[in-house]
Amino acid sequence: MTSSSVDRTLRAPGRFSKARRGSEPYAFILPTALLITVLMIVPIVMVIGYSFSDNVITNKHPELVWLANYAEVLGDPVFHTAVINTVVFTVGSVAAHLVLGLAFAMMLNTQLLSRFTKALFRTVYILPWLFTAAVIAVLWRLLLSPNGVVNYLLDSTGIASGQVEWLSNPDLALGSVTFINIWAGYPFFMISLLAGLQGIPHDLYEAATVDGANGIQKFFSVTIPQLRPIIISMLLLDLIWTSQQFALIWMTTGGGPINVTEMLSTYTYKLAFSRYEFALASTSAVLVLALSMVLAVFYVRHQRARD
User: Fold this and answer.
1) What GO biological process terms are annotated to this protein in UniProt (predicted)?
2) pLDDT at residue 120, rounded to an integer
3) Which domain holds residue 137?
């Protein structure tokens, strides 16, 4: 055996070991990549394909109609109503989540309350976050029924009389479901902002005190700037989650009465499973996906800038 062949034999295991080490990271992410492909990428591609065809699934031989489905959905007055309701529901819920979450977080972070009192309030305030959407929907349907506790309390205190139809009155239904969603979602903001408040150095407040700042000036000059990264992240996430809310709306009002609580999620569901227009439902789902992707892009850009 020549010296060159010996050298190649000695170097071969080294090259094999180096190649194996280089492929190990890909082997670790392969199962996750397969799951994402099968459970996310493939369904999304299929739905996008359905949106360019006539009624799929119920039609054995669907044909391409290109943008006809998009024109039909975008021209549907119910779709316009769903967009407006979704914007009102989402913006109102997210704004209230932030205000209530920040207020309760600051109360739980104050030094004026004892540990026992803060622990008690923390337990009470976190309760809505422990319930599932089904439990929340059933609970509030009972509370807001014409013979429910809310009407009884309002009648007893003289604020309102009679049996108010909170979830069946077209003038009250959207506000009622928005209130329910606010009640169910503010603990997420409260816990996150409380953690942020506890991470703010006390030296900043002491320096502001030395400079003669009062409580309001400290809040806007120290607290808010320190919490800004957390607030922006939570606002973007809550916008994405709330705009896709389905279970709570479906189990309280079902999008009614007369579409006053119709959301993009319930509109898409009805197209698919009430009217069996799966191509139109796919089109609506693609539009919702596009809106969600816009918010997701802002969130990712914010996270990169934060890092």
Assistant:
1) transmembrane transport
2) 86
3) 76-306
